[in-house]
């Protein structure tokens, strides 16, 4: 999604390509058990290409089109039926922060820095930041951070839940790879249902969520992965989910 040569600012072509890859997983066209998002260079993603914003003939239309493409990618991340793991080293600013907040598991370290960055150029957020951040760190803290363009250092970001795993800086990518690899070997259908239940819970009351949980766990029990998991438990062995869903 971003290129190191451009300071890891958002790259529209790469973003569109990543969106299509994620959609292919959802359509069953790709046998992928987990997705890892990371960057080259010292920063995760420093946001959009501000120079391009300034040079556009119609900045409003240009940024709206870019945000629309970006939002398709964010939706693909959240709708992917597999866990999406982010290795966030260095700065995750603007759109980079939005990407990190959209992922299921976010690994960072002491050198990780999250910053909204939008007020610094007179913009409001995109990439779902105004939706995800209040749900992760709380509405009041989110308003404070967004309005003041504050910086969440790695340790505080972990304490507030914006980072879900906190390791040494040099271990960020290795930790994220290990998690993604382990999840990829797990019960893919079950993990996808867990992700969907968690995402959709905010829009349901408890009775509706309980009904959806009952439907989902029944589907898991009837699936090859569910049957293998139950057999493995009864036989006191590690489950082998290869070739199951």
Structure description:
The protein has 245 residues and is α/β, with parallel strands linked by helices. The chain folds into two domains: 2-184, 2-enoyl-CoA Hydratase, Chain A, domain 1; 188-234. Helix content is 53%, strand content 11%. The chain contains eleven helices and nine strands. The chain has helices at 12-26, 50-55, 59-79, 95-102, 129-137, 139-148, 154-160, 172-184, 188-200, 206-222, 224-234, and strands at 2-3, 9-10, 35-37, 84-88, 91-93, 105-108, 113-115, 152-153, 165-166. The strands form three sheets. Strands 3-4-6-9 form a four-stranded parallel β-sheet, with helices on both faces. It has a three-stranded mixed β-sheet with strand order 5-7-8. A two-stranded antiparallel ribbon has the order 1-2. A hairpin with a 5-residue loop joins strand 1 and strand 2. Helix 1 (12-26) packs parallel to helix 3 (59-79), helix 3 packs parallel to helix 4 and helix 4 (95-102) crosses helix 5 (129-137). It is globular. Pfam families: ECH_1 (PF00378). Belongs to the enoyl-CoA hydratase/isomerase family. GO terms for molecular function: isomerase activity. It comes from Amycolatopsis acidicola. This is Enoyl-CoA hydratase/isomerase family protein.
